[in-house]
Hints:
Blueprint: H1 3-6, H2 20-41, E1 51-54, E2 57-59, H3 61-77, E3 82-85, E4 101-109, H4 111-116, E5 122-129, E6 132-140, E7 145-150, E8 154-157, E9 160-161, E10 174-177, H5 187-200, E11 203-205, H6 210-218, E12 224-230, H7 232-244, E13 248-250, E14 262-267, H8 269-280
Parallel strand pairs: 3-4, 10-11, 10-12
Antiparallel strand pairs: 1-2, 4-5, 5-6, 6-7, 7-8, 8-9, 12-14, 13-14
Helix pairs in contact: 2-3, 5-8, 6-7
Amino acid sequence: MTFAEVTPPSTGAAVAPRDARFLLALARRAADAAAGVIRDAVPRGASLDWREKAAADFVTEVDVTAERKAIEVLLTAVPDAVFLAEETATQVDPAALARGIAFVIDPLDGTTNFLHGLPDYAVSIAALVDGVLTAGVVQNVARNETFVAAVGAGAWLGDQRLSVSPITDPMRALIGTGFPFRDPADIPAYLDQMARVMAGSAGVRRPGAASIDLASVAAGRLDAFWENILAPWDVAAGILLVREAGGVSTDFDGAPSQAVRGPIAAGNPAIHEWLLRTLAARA
């Protein structure tokens, strides 16, 4: 399948709402709408009002407005869809995601980066059909990169089909991660993990937006990524990107990743296997 076959069909073409191409095109339009809100707000970044949802976890009017714009686009096309979204639509029965069409949305992944002018923040939107990840978009707004994936159709950046890296030697591998920031009690165990990964790899990076980290794994820029606790909206689109690029995404026990809250380890097959062993080791 080529990228042209993943892109939306021509206007007026008869496409079922459950079709992966339809859902991908819709998710891309919604991501573009949210990204427009974010770009318009960049000049006002220093004057935006921050609200702390939890320790070191910030939200602004930009997050909320971007999410609303994305949902408006999606509802226009799929009025009976279910939403699991970070800012305004998080109170949903998880079982509802297993029925019909559902969208999992992070309107601004990397809010802290955005507020500081660090150019790594993204819109992440995934579509599920009867609980199966079917389409996903991660748009790095600051860098103007849009990563897309549709089930069975590969992962793409523009016209470039993505593939996870071919590196098999951990000592040549670059690993992404996310620091624990809500509860200081989580830091010691994480530092033990990071010490083992650092000792066995070429390096560790923490860009600060999990959706971009997973897109970077899909693009072969990172060889693997792990984080101990992430929300569904952080990972849903990225999981599909990694899978469609030939990678593996699981929890720390090796079970395939789902759009749920919990740990994640993703990477090319060889480095992912090494990463799981390394995370499970004890000093």
